[in-house]
Amino acid sequence: MGEDATGILNTQYGTFFWILDGTSDSPSIVNEKEHIFSSRILAQLMNKNIREELILKSNENINLKELLLNSVESSKRDLMEKLKSSSNDILQKIASNIKSNNTPFCSTTVLIGFLSKQGTLQYFYLGDSEVLSFYNDGNKLIANQKDKNDNPSRLFVSILMNENSFVLKTNSFDVKLVVYKKENIDLVVAFSDGIGSSEKSLIVNPALSLSKISLVNQLTYDDKTLLVLERTIK
């Protein structure tokens, strides 16, 4: 399906990680097999812009919420460039749909986190991707209590019209955004909903579950993204 996009970036302070899952329930605007406006494109552009924003500010103390907001604005600009380069026929169809109250939209889940070299974990999520964190008690890895996602929505982008011009509008995705923080973390496992059926086994025995996860039938046709970060002390 190609709707998941993910990445990690190591810095002198620790590792940033992110997962985006473009949702399948929104329409796509396609020109000769090229996606101009779709959830897949939104996830891919967010992936690109998160990385570029991190590289640009890699030596600074980066605020995760600010990282999200800047990446959203960059992705909106990229989407608008794609729209502007579309044929008149496609633009007319988009305008006709909007005037008929059939507003084009796309959306993606968003998970962004940071694990410092000292073991401090910060992250937030919009949608149904998950983060599991563990600490080592000296004998084995112990799972921390999972943070409840009180903002299960996702990032939406819609095409609207202002007189004869197109404008891109997002939902209020940042209003209830919560950045969670945990200390003394030795292992982080982050995944999109396509890995969801392995969650219980990951909590009980992460090492064993990860060693066999490729053999597990996840009972879904969704894309499957899995990120594993392990902190080692030398």
Give a verbal description of the structure.
With 234 residues, the protein is an alpha+beta fold. The protein has one domain (4-230): Phosphatase 2c, domain 1 (4-Layer Sandwich), CATH 3.60.40.10. The chain has helices spanning 39-56, 64-84, 88-99, 199-204, 206-212, and strands at residues 4-10, 14-22, 29-31, 34-37, 105-116, 121-126, 130-136, 141-143, 155-162, 165-170, 180-182, 187-191, 226-230. Strands 1, 2, 5, 6, 9, 10 and 11 form a 7-stranded antiparallel β-sheet that branches. A 4-stranded antiparallel β-sheet has the order 8-7-12-13. A hairpin with a 3-residue loop joins β1 (4-10) and β2. The radius of gyration is 19 Å and the shape is elongated.
Q: Compute the CA-based radius of gyration.
A: 19 Å
Please count the beta strands (DSSP E, at least 2 residues each).
Answer: 13
Question: Could you say what the CATH topology is called?
Answer: Phosphatase 2c, domain 1
**CATH homologous superfamily title:** PPM-type phosphatase domain
Q: What is the level-2 CATH architecture name? A: 4-Layer Sandwich
The poorly predicted ranges are none
How many domains comprise the coordinates? Answer: 1
Assign the CATH class. Alpha Beta
